[in-house]
Amino acid sequence: MIKIIQLLAMEITPLSPQEIQQLRAETKGTAERIHFNNAGSSLPPDVVVETVINYLQEEATHGGYETEDKYEKEMEHTYDLIAKLINANRDEVAVMENASMAWGVVFNGITFNAGDEIITSEMEYLSNLMGFINAQKTHGVKIIVIPTDEQGNFPVQALEYAISPRTKLIAITHIASTAGTIIPVVEIGKIARKHQILYLVDACQSIGQLPVDVQEIDCDMLAVTGRKYLRAPRGTGFLYVRKEVQNKLKLILMDGFTAEWVSENDYEIRNDCRRFELTEKNKAVFLGFSKAIEYILNIGVQRTWPRIQQLAASMRKQLEGIDGIRVHDKGDQQCGIVTFLVLGMDSATVKNKMAEKRINVSVGKAKSTLIYMNRYQLSSVVRASVHYYNTEEEIDAMCRVLINIMITEAEKNELLKGVL
User: Fold this and answer.
1) Is the four-CA dihedral 130, 231, 332, 196 of positive or negative sign?
2) Which of 21, 218, 225, 347 is close enough to 237 for a disulfide, judged by CB 3.0 to 4.6 Å?
3) Residue 120 in this model has a pLDDT that exceeds 90
4) Buried/exposed code over 62-87 (b: 16+ C-beta within 10 A; e: otherwise)
5) Model confidence over 124-173: pLDDT tens digits?
6) Domain end: 241, 275, 298, which one?
7) Are residues 276 and 320 in the same domain?
8) Phi, psi (rounded to 5 degrees) for 163
9) CA–CA distance from 13 to each of 73, 142, 335 (Å)?
10) InterPro entries per the record (predicted)?
11) Residues 79 and 208 in one domain
């Protein structure tokens, strides 16, 4: 768990109203609509968009390889920026097309044998769960799921009790796709290290939202996407693999970029995390990704995280005060993802009606976090996710729209009853 109380006790200068207005001015999308779908894909800063467009224009006039050569130093610097963001070494990070690829490359690089055990939580994401099931089918591994307690907290002690000599991997999603709960990844890391068990963290929803330090988490592998709280272009992400673990993972894919030396009969794998990359990438979004990381580093995640917490708490409080709305977030530590139901209305209908008013939310489907959603018999939830560029006024507007939607729906139902 990120030490939130400790962070709040530090002398961190909060974002001023003037800074918020400036950050919004640097994001054209905030003038177009209210965007509460940051857990899906955040609005990128204008500088990120401009970086991508300008790069593509240069490719069109100067050539792809020639433009890549021109920006080689900036692209190389991306690894330094990622390392700074998560407190890693640059040879422990690789730029990937998305988090699913990052997660899949390392998970499938683990040598599983029949009877090996994978421990996870009920908050695990869909594609990760599919990976576990595939390993179960192909290698005969056993999947052990640790449920949260009645308050929605992850029981660390239950995890330690579940460990056996056959435990091969602990795989945890830091923040679930369809809940506001934060899983205590630091405490889990201490247990994984104590028992010398491989530890894989899906940090899709946490990187860019709250401070993440891989040394503090003590994880072996960490998978990240760019499009969510990092505000980067879609089709970007990165992978962290602890230096000592890199040689323990099989390479699923290889090309000339993977190796440092090749002969007609042999090759030598490069001695850093970029062995998990391939040569060809979308260089325009790569550079946009770099600019997005630079952007959040310049602001400071330590400064934006308290604002996200405050906005999410405000949203939950307002929603809980509206009759007919049920907030579903649990746990002592919650994030910028707020999930709720409008009683008597389908989540997709709520989303679509809000979109008509230029308010973006999303639908958290059952399959996204299947074990958790099945436990609470949820087929879907409305997911509203805040970022630091959102405002209290936007939350007020969303709640007013929700109330009007509910009134209109109630009136329509009464009218239908009269007709019937």
Assistant:
1) positive
2) 225
3) yes
4) eeeeebbeebeeebeebbebbbebbe
5) 999 999 999 999 999 999 999 999 999 999 999 999 999 999 999 999 99
6) 298
7) no
8) -70, 135
9) 32, 47, 20
10) Aminotrans_V_dom, Aminotrans_V_PyrdxlP_BS, PyrdxlP-dep_Trfase, PyrdxlP-dep_Trfase_major, PyrdxlP-dep_Trfase_small
11) yes
CA distance 341 to 91: 44
Please count the other Cβ atoms lying within 10 Å of the Cβ belonging to residue 214: 25
Which two tokens mark 338? 């707020």
Query: Whole-angstrom Cα distance, residue 158 to residue 161?
Result: 5
Q: Categorize the per-residue pLDDT at 4 as very low, low, confident or very high, splitting at 50, 70 and 90.
A: very low
Asked if residue 418 is part of any domain, the answer here is no
CATH code of the domain in which 385 resides: 3.90.1150.10
Task: Give mean pLDDT, residues 55-84.
Answer: 98
Q: Say whether pLDDT at 93 is over 90.
A: yes
- Residue-wise pLDDT for 127-138, tens only, equals 999 999 999 999
Domain presence at residue 31: yes
Q: Report the CATH number that the domain containing residue 220 is assigned in CATH.
A: 3.40.640.10
pTM for this entry: 0.94
Question: Is residue 419 domain-resident?
Answer: no
Helix (H, G, I), strand (E, B) or coil at 322: coil
CA Rg value for the chain: 22
Q: Which residues make beta-bridge pairs with 222?
A: 201, 240
